[in-house]
Design brief:
Elements (H helix, E strand, L loop, with lengths): L3 E3 L3 H11 L5 H19 L5 E7 L4 E7 L4 E7 L6 H7 L4 E2 L1 E6 L6 E7 L8 E5 L2 E2 L3 H12 L5 E8 L1 H10 L4 E7 L2 E2 L5 E2 L5 H6 L3
Parallel strand pairs: 1-11, 4-5, 4-6, 4-8, 8-10, 9-10, 10-11
Antiparallel strand pairs: 2-3, 6-7, 12-13
Helix pairs in contact: 1-2, 2-3
Length: 209
């Protein structure tokens, strides 16, 4: 099974609590999501490989380290995943950005793809899939299917809040994909929303409800 990593940094936990509160408006919700995404990007890149390079400071030549290995791409699942892009890019500004458009059919709860646009070298990059909510796991699994169909082999999934049901589904469908979250909540309700959750992330992000 792919590993599940829960980021328990106090500032991530604190900011997530503010996001959960129903009184938090769209502006603050956007800012908090971006800030948490930045903190999560810092954590998820903790184990990137380094290599030695020779540089020259204003005083002398020296050997230092820089990130090596595969280049990175981030792929938000539209639309809520867009709220995580700027925060991540503030830590990894050279990452390329792809987009996957999926929506959940309100009756079947199955994902429907409507948009897919990636950097041409996406198969050669480490891909981090972004979506605030991992509920049923259907959209995440479908997005990973799309990426693998284009040759991607190094994929990580980064979510703000996850339900146990969603984690289990992604692990069953894609055991090679690590899942990185800020919190694992209790369960899904009868409408497949995460409890206690934070509501519909897309609606709260863009003020559409």
């Amino acid at each position: 099974m792919g590993k599940v990593v829960i980021f328990e940094h106090p500032m991530i936990t604190h900011k997530l609590t503010l996001m959960r509160c129903k009184e938090t408006g769209a502006k603050d919700f956007r800012n908090l999501l971006s800030e948490i995404s930045m903190l999560m990007a810092y954590e998820i890149t903790r184990d990137l490989p380094l290599e030695n390079v020779e540089i020259e400071t204003p005083l002398c030549k020296t050997t230092c380290k820089k990130v090596s290995g595969k280049k990175m791409a981030i792929v938000p699942i539209l639309r809520a995943g867009l709220g995580m892009v700027d925060g991540f890019l503030s830590i990894v500004p050279v990452a390329k950005v792809g987009h996957i458009g999926l929506y959940r059919d309100p009756d079947t709860h199955l994902p429907v793809e409507y948009y897919f646009k990636m950097p041409p070298d996406i198969a050669d990059r480490t891909v981090i899939l972004l979506d605030p909510m991992l509920a049923t796991g259907g959209s995440a699994s479908a997005a990973i299917d799309c990426l693998k169909a284009r040759g991607c082999t190094d994929i990580m999934l980064m979510n703000l809040v996850a339900a146990p049901e969603g984690i289990e589904r992604v692990q069953n469908n894609h055991p090679d994909v690590g899942i990185y979250v800020a919190a694992v909540d209790e369960r899904l309700n009868e409408h497949c929303y995460i409890l206690p959750g934070l509501g519909d992330a897309g609606d709260r992000l863009f003020g559409t409800k």
